[in-house]
Design brief:
Rossmann fold; alpha/beta; binds S-adenosylmethionine; Spermidine Synthase, Chain: A, domain 2; six-stranded antiparallel sheet; seven-stranded mixed sheet
């Protein structure tokens, strides 16, 4: 939603994202760079005054140039370095290309990205090229345009890491938060494989986190969550769902993670092995959401 005003000399406009609970995100915008109603959702790209370009789907913030590295690094490197020898990664959603960019930093054979809306990829590649940074053209990137739930249900391929970088549980994204989808993901994971999911912001979507962990808990030996602060995902920490049948994968020592991180030689601006381990140390109110899932 855009609100405009005119303080005499200074015309202003804001992108406002109502988040519920009498709370909203507001970003001062300079212009609407692009707008289209795709086959699946309303897509807008804004030029902001201080936060770079921003893309919103159905009025909900998806990606912001200034702080996207936090989310993309944490949703990608935590499962991949915890796994330790991933060769096949599957990204469900992720149309802006940020997860794909980060996943391709690892010595992996292939990243399969399953995005329902080809327009999101095309528009982000054109108007927010810094997010994908050429990842769509990497020979190890296998781009599939499909509903992620249908792809996972039908494929006979196996993955070491599945990263669900979807929109929120509404519209096309809703199916990616179901127990059936997580059950299908489990059949597509190799031994010791890991699934991670975007699970909303804790102070506003805490029930979503509880629901996600409860559904992961139905299918995986180790269902948990980890967190990171993403300024434009306003409303407290951003939570990530975690599912694996090998609990030791999550409880890694910082020395072993540091050894793996250094061996990959990847550069990061938020992720480091200490932050990796610390991201699983939960504030009590978030730990309570986890307990409520049991
Ligand atoms: N980082 C963002 C967040 O945390 O909300 C998500 C960014 S990414 C743009 C979300 C992508 O999920 C969109 O490109 C959307 O088209 C895609 N998506 C939504 N539902 C999907 C589905 N069922 N299958 C595959 N992709 C889907």
């Amino acid at each position: 939603m855009i609100k405009q005003g005119d303080h005499g000399r200074h015309k202003w406009a804001w992108f406002d994202e109502p988040l519920g609970f009498g709370f909203q995100l507001g970003l001062e915008i300079e212009s609407v760079v692009f707008r289209e109603t795709t086959e699946y959702q309303d897509l807008v790209v804004y030029e902001t005054a201080q936060w770079g370009r921003v893309m919103a789907l159905d009025g909900i913030m998806q990606v912001c140039e200034r702080d996207e590295f936090i989310y993309h690094e944490m949703l990608t490197h935590v499962p991949t370095l915890a796994h330790g020898h991933a060769r096949e990664i599957c990204v469900i959603g992720g149309g802006d290309g940020g997860i794909l960019r980060e996943a391709l930093k690892h010595p992996i054979d292939r990243v399969t990205m399953v995005e329902i809306d080809a327009a999101v990829m095309a528009i982000c590649a054109k108007y927010l090229p810094s997010i994908s940074s050429g990842a769509f053209d990497d020979p190890r990137a296998d781009i599939v345009i499909s509903d992620g739930a249908k792809f996972i249900a039908d494929t006979n391929r196996l993955f070491d890491v599945i990263i669900v970088d979807s929109t929120d549980p509404r519209g096309p994204g809703e199916i990616l938060f179901t127990s059936e989808f997580y059950a299908d993901c489990k059949t597509c994971l190799t031994d010791g494989g890991v699934i991670v999911t975007q699970s909303g912001v804790t102070m506003i979507q805490g029930d979503e986190l509880t629901r996600t962990v409860r559904r992961l808990d139905e299918h995986f030996v180790d269902a948990s969550t980890y967190i990171a602060p993403v300024p434009t995902y306003a409303g407290g920490f951003m939570a990530f769902g975690w599912g694996s049948d090998n609990p030791t994968v999550r409880e890694l020592h910082v020395e072993r993670l540091t050894d793996r991180y250094n061996k990959t030689n990847i550069s990061t601006r938020y992720y480091n092995p200490q932050i990796h381990v610390g991201a699983f140390a939960l504030p009590t109110y978030i730990a309570n959401h986890l307990e409520a899932a049991r």
